[in-house]
Amino acid sequence: MPLGLIALAIGAFGIGLTEFVIMGLLPEVAADFGVTEATAGWLISGYALSVVVGALGLTAATTRLPRKPVLLGLVVLFIAGNALTALASDYPAAMAGRIIAALCHGAFFGIGSVVAADLVAPAKKARAIAIMFTGLTAANVFGVPFGTFVGQQFGWRATFWAISAIGVVAFAGIALLVTVPPATGEKVSLVHELRAFRSGQVRLSLTVTVLAYGGMFGAFTYIAYTLTGVTGFAASAVPWLLVLFGIGLVIGNAVGGRLADRSIDRTLLGFTGLLLLILIAFGLLAWSQPATIVILVLLGAFGFGTVPGLQSRIMQYAGGAPTLASGANIGAFNVGNALGAWAGGLGIAAGLGYTSPIWIGAAITASGLVVMIVAALTARPARHSATGTVRTVAA
After folding, report:
1. What are the Cα distances from residue 85, in Å, to 96, 163, 166, 179, 360?
2. For residue 180, what are the CA distances in angstroms to 205, 291, 388?
3. Considering Cα of 184, then 190, then 192, then 196, what sign does the dihedral take?
4. 291 and 284 in contact (C-beta within 8 Å)?
5. How confident is the model at residue 100 (pLDDT cuts 50, 70, 90)?
6. Helix axis angle, 289-304 to 264-285, nearest 10°
7. Model's pTM, two decimal places?
């Protein structure tokens, strides 16, 4: 395994921690700033929407620049945003810090996915992307529960100071270990990158990403409230329950990456369908502690198991212009995040209870499964080469 993949995973770990740790700390943050649960949830939705801006804007702006310096610059932005969040004296300042940190997110994963895929043989591209995203899953297994525990014991600001320190480590790792192959140093025009979006399969893939991932996020955003208010767990148990979800992420990421190297579309259809079933089961059994423990693992596994396949699929159909399309797909993940968090918040605000985000997430996932079926059927005439590029595609 190229050492550069480890460095990219370190960066993914820090970014994943920034994105997800706020969920376990949402009650503390809301109480500190004197805002409602739904308002505090905008620290998640606002982050997700800012990821979209960074994924498209920063990726487009840096298309002609060498990728390694760009990755390092993005990590600097990440450190600055988390430090500002830790220093925030009020809710708007905290939101500003979240937005700054989020701007690096999409571009980092978009560019990083292309670099990771170029570091390995063509038949292992999805697995290479999965290795980079292992940092994101590790953040959920180890980082998020620990960060939640630290925030509950020493104040939520301490967690964001710790994240800033991780950013410094990530910067050093990328500087020392990432070696960009000469082929990735070619200067490609923005117009050339934009041509990838002419493909109907690229557009369908983006839609699947928004809906499939958004459905999971709709259920997960307010998970702390569901676990304490419906299932009956103590608040102190939330960090350790998140470990179960994180374990599922790791399993799903690894298995999804391997299966996607065999068949991307079958993998995505299977995982999205199973995710829908798990969400329905969660909505029906959220009152049961034993059932919830099992469901948390499966929710993470089937939800994140789609990620390597979704990222590989859009790079595949983007052909020779994968960078902006890859960044756009990271943006699509976070449009889904924002959609799920917003829709789930509407359910809570309407007085439908803390299981309403689960059912709303299930509805979003169901629509994503329909779109994925359409995408798979219209792509059926496509034949793929051993290198993973598309020879003929029904757009």
Report:
1. 7, 10, 15, 32, 30
2. 27, 46, 20
3. positive
4. no
5. very high
6. 160
7. 0.69
